[in-house]
UniProtKB/TrEMBL annotation:
Name of the molecule in the record: 3-oxoacyl-[acyl-carrier protein] reductase
Gene3D superfamilies assigned to the protein according to its UniProt record, in alphabetical order: NAD(P)-binding Rossmann-like Domain (3.40.50.720)
Native source organism of the sequence: Noviherbaspirillum humi
Signal sequence annotation: none
InterPro entries attached to this UniProt entry: NAD(P)-bd_dom_sf, SDR, SDR_fam
Domain of life according to the entry: Bacteria
Assigned protein family: Belongs to the short-chain dehydrogenases/reductases (SDR) family.
A Pfam match: adh_short_C2
Amino acid sequence: MDFGIRGKTALVCGASKGLGRGCAEALAAEGVDVTLVARGAEALEKTAEEIRRATGVKVTTVACDVTTPEGRQQVLQACPQPDILVTNAGGPPTGDFRTFSRDDWIKAIDANMLTPIELIKATVDGMIARRFGRIVNITSSAVKAPLDVLALSNGARSGLTGFIAGLARKTVPHNVTINNLLPGQFATDRLQVTIGAAAKSVGKPVDEVFEARRKQIPAQRFGTPEEFGAVCAFLCSMQAGYMTGQNVLLDGGNYPGTF
């Protein structure tokens, strides 16, 4: 299927590895020029060069901390008018909520709620004026099924979800959709962190907890960044223009509910 977005421009955050990279690769494969954002310059440039070789699209890189005003300014100078925006920030620390300070909460909210909102605020009016825009926020399955060790993430990402629920209905008349992608357990560095924290809390070896987690997933495996990116690319397609304000769960069937 031709997604109809060849020649569009995309700004993809957290794009040097993991789910962000999966999204960038899938969009580039559709002929979208991409601006990749991440903190680590070396990994970012390596990813950019691999995407260039694989797809031939224009790839721009910005190595910065997008959760800061200065970082966002750099990003928006490099890509001021994207047609597609994929927001993504590393999850905050895991642990018992009793151990988190006010500063911990503010950092989590800044990274996982306010930064996406600021990026949307800076780019959505241009999308509305051009009558095309696709915004995808990478959040977490914990929004739908919270985990106790992810207290900071649960709170901050749920705040973003509530904000998007209202905004998405205002932009869709202009062919600008906003949706959230909720990853479950994917084979990324973040998975290693969360499983490591869980293993520590119960006093078990990491490998044992890792295997137990895998077996609990109905799909009997962890997800891949490539299949996550494919869903992101569809949400950014011309065909997805009637889909907005949705929380799309990708978790291998792990969430047991009907709704």
